[in-house]
Write the structure tokens for this entry.
Amino acid sequence: MGNGYPRDLIGYVSGKAPGSKVQLGVVRDGKDMTLTASLAERKDDTAGKGDPEKAASEDSHERIGIDVHTGVKVKRIEKTAKRLRTVFEVDGKEMSVKSDRVVNGAGRIANVIALDLDAGRIAHDGFRVAVDETMRSTSNPGVYVCGDALSGPPQLSPLATYEGRLVGRNIVEGPKHKPDYSSLPSAVYTVPALATVGLSEAKAKEKGIKTRVQVNNMEYWFSTRQFAETVAWSKIIVDEGSDAIVGAHFVGHAGEELVNIFGLAMKHGIKASAIRDFIFAYPTFSADIKSML
Ligand SMILES: Cc1cc2nc3c(=O)[nH]c(=O)nc-3n(C[C@H](O)[C@H](O)[C@H](O)COP(=O)(O)OP(=O)(O)OC[C@H]3O[C@@H](n4cnc5c(N)ncnc54)[C@H](O)[C@@H]3O)c2cc1C
């Protein structure tokens, strides 16, 4: 990216990772470009208004000149004399932003219909193949679905590999292996990166888990200052009764790496106190985990 790109750009995304990456890449790379606004339809836990994860990432978006609007419905894009006007609705009120170009990063769905599923007796609803818990077609036992074509779980590369391996085992050993998505780490590689694993605080409460939640603004921690980070934030959610990690969420602070340690702990039942007792190499971002829980 660089020369030849428009001065103003607007990306409207649905809280998806690639959209955010493109936006921030454009803004940081371009010397004479501004990303006018980011319009996201979703208002969920990792991208929800009022949620600290979102607030921290919104701050950093806004600091580099991106105006963030979440929970919006994009209505239409109109041509003005010189530019484009994107009209969107937020809380019942119509608003608009002007830009030279509009980028749609609202996500993608697998084009499974082009496969003529009916000819293979594969049940579907026009977009998704109907599968059971073992990822097997509900109507044709000889067909399994995995990866991006599997509707429901996140569309992520390591997940496609994981599901593919399980499908392979199901074909060989019979349909008995079900995917487990409960300790799936994921990250959005923006600057600062967003990373998450497990339940949000709200979801944990919804499930009736009595939680101990530690929110850390790590802006002035040694490692943050060492790397001159402007945003460093984490929220660790622990089941008060069992001491098990329930969720871990990061903005910055190498969260895209640390989230894997939390995912591993969740998967293998390593308790919060055991992590606190572990001796980490110092100075590292990982060593800060002890202070985060
Ligand atoms: C811009 C972008 C950024 C991403 N970034 C990340 C990231 O940072 N981290 C991450 O984990 N994931 C990321 N993903 C998602 C990741 O790429 C997908 O989840 C993953 O590739 C899915 O694997 P898959 O095998 O299901 O599908 P694919 O990788 O899409 O593979 C499907 C293959 O099937 C072939 N094919 C399709 N139709 C037919 C046909 N009729 N006959 C024969 N072959 C066919 C296609 O050509 C393709 O090669 C990103 C995706 C995008 C679009």
In short: Helices lie at 17-29, 52-63, 157-173, 201-206, 222-226, 255-267, 272-277, 289-292. Residues 113-173 form one domain. The radius of gyration is 22 Å.
